[in-house]
Amino acid sequence: MSLDKLMIGKNCKLLRLQADGITRRRLLDLGLVKDTFIKALYKSPCGDPVAYEIRGSVIALRLEEASKIIVEYIPKKEESI
Hints:
Layout: E1 11-17, H1 21-29, E2 37-43, E3 50-54, E4 57-61, H2 63-66, E5 69-74
Antiparallel strand pairs: 1-2, 1-5, 2-3, 3-4
């Protein structure tokens, strides 16, 4: 699934990026590489952007960017951030 579908409070693991060019470079610079754990923290009042915990930092991503990040949901018993 894509990161924009992850519910608030849930964890996932990054599988791959489907972005190109500058967007891909920015996501890589933020530490979004394969097997990175991500937690959805908060949604803005209008729903876009969403704040995520990535490698100990809080990063806000627009839904357009998050839709290009393919992740695997991690059930509660396996969460390890």
